[in-house]
Amino acid sequence: MSRVGALVESLLELERPLLVALDVDGTISPIVRDPDLARIPASTLSSLETLARAPGVGLALITGRALSSIARMEQLEGIWRAVEHGGLVLGPGQAPAPRELTPERREALDLFQHWVETRAQDAFIEYKPQAIAVHVRAIASEDPARAAKLLGEADELAQNLGLHVRRGKALREAEAIHHDKGHALAEIFERSGASSVFFAGDDLTDFPAIEFATRHGVGAFVCSDEQRGAPPASATLLQSVDEMAQLLQQLAERITR
Ligand SMILES: [Mg+2]
Question: Which of 175, 194, 225 is the last residue of a domain?
Answer without folding.
Answer: 175
